[in-house]
Amino acid sequence: MGLVNHTVVTHFILLGIPNADGLQTILFITFLAFYLCTLLGNLLIFSAILADPRLHTPMYFFLCNLSMMDIGFSSISTPKMLSNLWFQSRVISLGGCMSQVFFYHFLGSTECLLYTLMAYDRYVAICHPLRYRLIMNWRVCAFLAAGTWITSSFHATILTSLTFTLPYCGSNVVDYFFCDIFPVVKLACADTYVIETMTLTNTGVVPMTCFHLILASYIRIIFSVLKMNSSKGRRKAASTCASHLTVVMLFFGQCALIYTQPHLSKVLVTAVQIFGNVVTPMLNPVIYTLRNKEVKAALRKLRGGQIDVRQLQE
Question: How far is CA 11 from CA 107, 184, 190, in A?
Fold first, then answer.
């Protein structure tokens, strides 16, 4: 009898976004527009990089990974949230809830590790330019990228398994707009200390480790840039790092607000979470194309436009 599955809950009910009464239509249109822009923007960047041989470099290889990750990340909660807003469809199956928990932590961890790899790539390119192709060869890049996805899958599998091996035999109403560990384990009919402690530890250690590695990379980059004699070289180095720094600040700013400020109001936490789940995946392709002449040229080439080679050389 000790091996019997005590989970009698077969589905959960998502209460959705708090204080959204009367705003469902406006929120639905807004989030749908963000979601479609996310899909289109990231697919365009992915296609442009694949189609342009000049962009077959480690930096754009990691950017392709980020684009695919953004598409997946925005698809974890947005379709269900849109269904909730338009059709008032609040029921999610146990399997669907497990999938949301798994992919949220899987892709969140992957994003964190990808940003770290991209910072390391910029560090090698700027601080060791003569050895860049030797250090960041395709075998190394593929190994590093695969490592981020595999490591994150183990991380998410452990957290998801611990969450759903708990017995759920009471209320099945999740007071949130998607299934995450803390809103779900509140419904468990058992002691949740272990899973809550492991979740806080994992969601704290992984981002903090990645943040310090990124910080160390950029400290070295800054020193190298300051030593450059050419103002053109400094501008080019700063330009290649600006986009990455912007998305890093967006990602870690959100993490800091959610996980280091436990006394934030539920409405504010939900707003920050929605921004990270819906808006940030749309902003990433915009940020990477606004000041990136190579990506803009590849997009023009993709739609059949002419490329000004002189602009790319500036």
Answer: 23, 12, 18
Strand partners, 93: 11
Cβ atoms of residues 203 and 259 within 8 Å: yes
How, if at all, do strands 173-174 and 91-93 pair? unpaired
Do residues 7 and 164 make contact, with C-beta atoms less than 8 angstroms apart?
yes
Provide the whole-model pTM: 0.88
CA distance 300 to 148: 31
Structure tokens at 155: 């991380």
CA dist 260 and 314 (Å) reads: 43
The Cα 76–Cα 110 span in angstroms is 14
- Who's near 66: CB < 8 A, 6+ residues apart? 111, 114, 118, 284
| Of 252 and 12, the one with more pLDDT | 12
Output the six-digit token pair for 312: 């790319």
**Distance of alpha carbon 168 from alpha carbon 181, whole angstroms:** 13
Phi and psi torsions of 11, nearest 5°: -155, 165
DSSP string for 132-171: HHHHT-HHHHHHHHHHHHHHHHHHHHHHHHHHHTS---S-
* Half-sphere CA count of 205, side-chain side, radius 13 A: 7
Span 160-190, pLDDT tens digits: 999 998 888 878 999 889 999 888 998 988 8
Per-residue b or e along 11-33, where b marks 16 or more CB atoms closer than 10 Å to that residue's CB: ebebebbeeeeeeeeebbeebbe
pLDDT tens-place string over residues 186-244: 898 888 888 888 887 777 788 888 999 999 999 999 888 888 777 777 777 777 788 88
Give the strand order in the sheet containing 91-93. Answer: 91-93, 11-14, 173-174
